[in-house]
Structures are given as structure tokens and as C-alpha cells.
Design brief:
heterodimer, A: 249 residues, 10 helices, globular, B: 323 residues, alpha/beta, six-stranded mixed beta sheet, 11 helices, 15 strands
Chain lengths: 249, 323
């Protein structure tokens, strides 16, 4: 045990997140972009500039725009939601561990699991397409942006998993409607979109290797990211400390 | 007549056996969910020994167990574990364990992994050894490396109990612990609980299987519609229920003559002649048993057997619930 992170809770959460079909789903998520890249390499022959365009679109739309929120949604809502649903959360609550340690441990595992899925989804295509226009720096910057997105998404989805038994459905609606449609079509919503924060962070980390038109400013990412992180973490911690086991558990 | 409310508004069970010092106390505890009152002004104190928590469905048993386990806050009143509020600190779980009624246990873990997880969460210095000991206690050594998802209902119950016992808690709260166990496993579990009680553990068992508690629990708490209807030893509770007639079966050398003789006794208000003897109903248990010997002697009838038939836990429970 080290500080607020409890090794046993982390191990249990990891086993829970990767139980049954979720492991195969995670592998599919992680390798799908590599598969698309291979298909592209086999079929397209338009030179380095089209590879850069393909890589940029693949990472922004498929990985950061779709796989990242979906992986975070599955891991974030399962970390608590699954245990609330089947009643096994009780076994953690009746142990001599502060409840916020349980939250911190689950959050860290959810974030790391999400990063473990998106890292190969970004790095393998980056390696397959590496050249003058697809640089290692660019790929690593996208990964840094995705890591920030993983942290923010998981913080929000962990809170959602504890708040509502239909967290997965609500989260999916959020990903599709807000992140997928509203934040892309209405400029005002960009400054609330975690996807936009991830892309802006990737751009900031790339030192010019990644250029995204109309991205939100780094200060917006910093302030809004901090607000989301603190608010969702505080709410989840508070909710868990006040959490009462219902009669049916 | 003594009413149940008089009997039990505040009761202390097993006060003489407090060697462990472990103690669970409820002081004027009420708990409601919205407009529904689940537990209404309940007070009692438990020390070492086995206490049966009885009541029909919806009587508030699970709510009380969850409040004792610090998983629910009382709306009013105090739930104290060794003098401290049950919800005050997670450190109470070093002394207290709960075995919930719900079957759910992480199905992707093996029995051994589940118990070891419980041991590690308790920060036990030798979690592996404690795990092996707890699994042996519940007789699951052979199946310990199988996934819990493949366990039968009884095996899940036993692995839950092993997880709860792994740190040797002073207070053990069990919600319907015998569900799904076969008769041999139940007897074995009852022996284990008796052994723990003899070592000074406070054990509270919520169960609807009255015959088991009849043998096991030295004391009972009877919940009816959220209120504590009675507490104490169930035979003592029965004796105090003076508004209910006491019923005996009596066998003698001449049941028919004894029946007519007994009807002259003012404390006897009903005699029924059956193939297995007389069924005698009386309002005054003590006077009737003394009078019966006198009536039999005067009528020169030899008494073979006198047996109370409504002093079982089940009878007491039915009387209290039907009030």
C-alpha cells in the first residue's frame, strides 16, 4: 500500500475491468487503428502527405474522437457501476480502508487501463506510417493529449457510475451527442469538450508537429480541465464517503 | 399482563459474558426511507454470544444489520460499536465483519483469491496463512482454486463467511447465513458459530429458518413492522406473554378421566382428547403444572409425560408476529 492507492483495490479493479469479454474488446480497440493503417498502406499509394492526412484523421476522429471516450466510458463506469449493480461494492466498504482511497485506486486503474488501450492505437499506426510527415514526436504528443483525455473522461465516468445505474447508456448519449455532435458543430461547446482538450493538449505538446485549426487555447484546457477534474473527483469522493448501502444490497 | 413494548423497549442481552469487551448498542434508533419507516425507536445492547434477529420480510432486520455494520446511518438515534459510532471510522471493520444476504461475490475470482483479498484489505501480516485457515474453517479447501462463478449457492455462502472470518473479528453480523447450505454444512456452520461464541465473539444472525436458531441462538431479537417486539431468551419471552394460553400435551394412564378431572381446575380452560394424549390449555402455566400433579394424584392417575408444545421459537415468533 502506498498513500491513498491501495494495491489490493487496484488489483481487484484491474481483474474486474478486464474480466470476460472486456479484455477482448480492449484488445480490439487497441489494435483496430493498426489494422486500418495496414489496410491503408496496402491500398493507398499517394505519398507521405496523404499518410500524414490519414494518420491525423485516424487519431483525431477514430482514436481520440471515438475509442478514447468509449474505452474510458466502459472502464470508468464499470469500476464502480458494476460493483454497485451486483452488490460486491459492499465487500470493499466493510474493510478498514478510507473510502476515498477506494476511489483514488479505482480512478488510477481506470485511467491506466484507458491509456493502455489508446497507447497502441496511437503508437502502432505512428510507427507503421513513420516518415517525414508522421513523426514520433507527433505520435507521442497525441498520446499525451489522449492521456489527459483519459484522466478527465475517467474522472467524469467514475462519478457517473456511482451516481446512476444507467451510467453506460447516459455516458454513451453524452459521447455521441455532446462530444460527437454539439462540440463539433457549435463553437461555444468546444470549451467544454474533453475531446477538444485532448487535441489542444496534443497540439501544445507537439511543439508545432501537430496543427489543429480552431482548437481551444491551452489556458482553456488548463482551467476547464482543472475544474472538471476537481469537481468530479470531489463529488465522487463525497458521494462514496456518504454512500449508504440500500436495503436490497 | 406484560406487553411486548414493556418488555423490550430497551434490552441488554448476555450482559454476564463480556470477557471480549466487544459490544453493539442501539439507542433509540429509527431509520426511514422517504416516508417509509423501516426501523422505529429500537434500543438494545449485545455482548458476546449468539443472538438471533428474527422477523417477517420487511420487518427491518437487514436495515438493522446494515446500521450495525456502519453501512447505513440511523435517521434518529445512535448505533455504537464498542462505544463509538458505527459510521465513525473504517477502522471498526478490524473488529467487525458482515456477511451480506446477497449471494453476489466477484465471480471472476477463485475462492482463495476472494478470501486472500479480504485478508489483504485487512492488512494482515500473513494474509496467505490466514486465508488458508479461514478456508479450512468453512471446509472449502478442495474447491478453493475454482472460480466463484462455478460455486453452488451453499459454497458461495461459505466462502463469504470465510472472507468475513479471515481477520478473526470480535463482532460477526450474518444475514441469512444458512441459505443454500445442505444439512451437513448447516450443522458444521452452527458448530463453528457456537465455537466462536464460546470464545467471546458477538454474533448476530438474521434468519428466517427458526429451527436452526432454536438450537443456536441463546437470545433473540424479534422485529415486527420496524419495531422490536421482544428480546431475550425465547422461552422467557414466551413465559411473559401472559395474554396467550400455554399449551401442553399430557400423557397419563387414563387420559379420559384426567381430562374430566382437569376441567374442574380454574386455571385450565381447554382440554382436548387426542390419540397422542391430552392437549391442555391454561392461562397460568405455574398454577396449572402444580395443579395437574395434585389432580392426578387425587384421581389416582399416573402421569407419563407433560410437554409444552408452544414454547418453541417458532410458536413464540408466530405469536409475536400475529399480534
Amino acid at each position: 500500500m502506498s498513500g491513498p492507492l491501495n494495491n489490493t483495490v487496484m488489483w481487484l479493479t484491474w481483474r474486474q475491468l478486464f474480466a470476460k469479454r472486456r479484455l477482448w474488446l480492449a484488445i480490439a480497440f487497441a489494435l483496430a487503428p493498426a489494422f486500418f493503417t495496414l489496410v491503408f498502406r496496402l491500398l493507398a499509394d499517394d505519398g507521405p502527405s496523404s499518410e500524414a492526412t490519414f494518420f491525423g484523421t485516424l487519431i483525431r476522429e477514430i482514436v481520440i474522437g471515438t475509442l478514447l471516450p468509449l474505452a474510458a466510458l466502459i472502464f470508468g463506469t464499470t469500476a464502480f457501476g458494476g460493483e454497485v449493480d451486483d452488490g460486491t461494492l459492499l465487500y470493499l466498504l466493510v474493510k478498514p480502508i478510507p473510502r476515498w482511497h477506494v476511489h483514488a485506486s479505482k480512478l488510477v486503474v481506470s485511467v491506466l487501463s484507458t491509456i493502455a488501450v489508446v497507447a497502441p492505437a496511437i503508437l502502432i499506426p505512428g510507427l507503421l506510417l513513420s516518415g517525414p510527415d508522421v513523426t514520433t514526436r507527433g505520435a507521442v504528443s497525441y498520446l499525451a493529449g489522449a492521456a489527459l483525455g483519459a484522466l478527465l473522461y475517467c474522472t467524469v465516468f467514475l462519478a457517473l457510475g456511482l451516481a446512476n445505474r444507467r451510467a453506460l447508456v447516459i455516458g454513451l448519449l453524452y459521447v455521441v451527442s455532446f462530444e460527437g455532435i454539439l462540440s463539433r458543430s457549435l463553437p461555444g461547446f468546444k470549451s467544454l469538450s474533453i475531446r477538444e482538450f485532448s487535441l489542444a493538449a496534443a497540439q501544445a505538446a507537439s511543439n508545432g508537429a501537430i496543427v489543429i485549426e480552431g482548437s481551444v487555447s491551452p489556458s482553456t484546457v488548463w482551467w476547464m480541465g482543472t475544474i472538471i477534474l476537481v469537481a468530479a473527483t470531489y463529488w465522487t469522493g463525497f458521494r462514496l464517503v456518504r454512500y449508504e448501502v440500500a436495503e436490497r444490497l | 399482563m406484560t406487553t411486548t413494548a414493556d418488555l423490550d423497549r430497551s434490552s441488554t442481552l448476555s450482559p454476564a459474558t463480556t470477557s471480549s469487551g466487544a459490544c453493539v448498542e442501539l439507542r433509540n434508533v429509527s431509520r426511514w426511507y422517504g416516508n417509509v419507516v423501516a426501523v422505529n425507536d429500537v434500543s438494545f445492547t449485545l455482548h458476546s454470544g449468539i443472538t438471533g434477529l428474527l422477523g417477517p420480510n420487511g420487518a427491518g432486520k437487514t436495515t438493522i444489520l446494515h446500521m450495525m455494520a456502519g453501512l447505513l446511518r440511523p435517521s434518529v438515534g445512535d448505533v455504537l460499536i464498542d462505544g463509538a459510532a458505527a459510521t465513525s471510522s473504517p477502522q471498526i471493520y478490524r473488529r467487525l465483519s458482515l456477511v451480506p444476504e446477497r449471494e453476489a461475490v466477484q465471480p471472476f475470482l477463485s475462492g482463495y483469491e476472494f478470501v486472500r483479498t479480504c485478508a489483504r484489505l485487512q492488512s494482515l501480516p500473513n494474509a496467505e496463512e490466514a486465508t488458508r485457515n479461514a478456508i479450512t474453517l468453512v471446509d472449502l479447501a478442495e474447491a478453493q482454486h475454482r472460480k466463484i462463478g462455478t460455486y453452488s449457492k451453499g459454497m458461495r455462502q461459505r466462502i463469504k463467511i470465510a472472507g468475513a472470518l479471515v481477520h478473526d473479528p470480535m463482532i460477526l453480523l450474518l444475514d441469512e447465513p444458512f441459505n443454500g447450505m445442505d444439512p451437513r454444512q448447516r450443522l458444521q456452520m452452527m458448530d463453528l458459530l457456537r465455537e466462536l461464541a464460546a470464545k467471546g465473539r458477538v454474533i448476530v444472525i438474521s434468519s428466517h429458518i427458526l429451527e436452526e436458531l432454536d438450537d443456536l441462538a441463546t437470545n433473540v431479537l424479534v422485529m415486527v413492522a420496524g419495531r422490536l417486539a421482544a428480546s431475550g431468551h425465547f422461552r422467557e419471552i414466551r413465559r411473559l406473554m401472559t395474554d396467550r394460553p400455554h399449551t401442553f400435551t399430557v400423557r397419563s394412564s387414563d387420559d379420559r378421566r384426567l381430562a374430566s378431572a382437569l376441567l374442574t381446575d380454574p386455571t385450565v380452560f381447554g382440554v382436548e382428547l387426542t390419540t397422542s394424549g391430552l392437549v391442555v390449555r391454561t392461562t397460568d402455566r405455574g398454577a396449572m403444572t402444580r395443579g395437574l400433579a395434585r389432580v392426578a394424584r387425587d384421581a389416582r392417575i399416573r402421569l407419563v409425560e407433560i410437554r409444552p408444545i408452544d414454547e418453541s421459537l417458532e410458536s413464540v415468533f408466530s405469536y409475536l408476529v400475529d399480534r
